[in-house]
Design goal:
This protein is an alpha+beta fold. The chain contains six helices and four strands; from the N terminus they run ααααβαβαββ. Helices cover 55% and strands 20% of the residues. Strands 1-2-4-3 form a four-stranded antiparallel β-sheet. About 9% of the residues have low confidence.
Length: 205
Amino acid sequence: MNKEKLLEMFKDKKIQNYSYNIFFFVVFSFFTIFAIQPNLSTAFRLQKELQDLRLQNKKSEEAILQIVNYQSLMEGYRDNLTVLDEAVPSSPELAKVVNEISKTASDSGLIVNSLTIESIGFKGDSGTDIGATPGDDELGNLTNQPDLMSFTITVEGSASFSQITQFLNQVIGQRRLKTYDSINLSTENSNENMVITILVRTYYL
């Protein structure tokens, strides 16, 4: 094919159109690969970062709202914190507990024959905290939580059944947290009074 035939072919309208189309697609492909594609990649990356930021912002707003709710809750219970401290104080306060039980016995008509402190738990002793189960330390349920300590007081006395019932109800109704480990009742031969032996447990931090 000589030069003249090539020139004649290029003068043909169809060949010119094909040439323009081929040239356009070559230029368009080059522009797409080297210009549009990086911009599209950047746009998709920025869109993903925007979605991630919106998600983080939503989580932050939820955390802030939760903190505000906790703060409002603490404000509502602020006046009751002293009651909690009275229920479970930071020290045993032996004399105060003994005085409370003695006064309650006197008010209810219970004649106390003996009042003995049976056991006192010290911080660091094993088995003095309540609610612990084997494996708690491994599960991390009690991590960084104060141990609830306790000690027991044995009260022996005599009174009528109604007086004993009044005494038991008043002891449980006191602000200082107390529970009963055991209660034994028996009758006296000399009169109608009953003899009670009760093991009272009280708690502190």
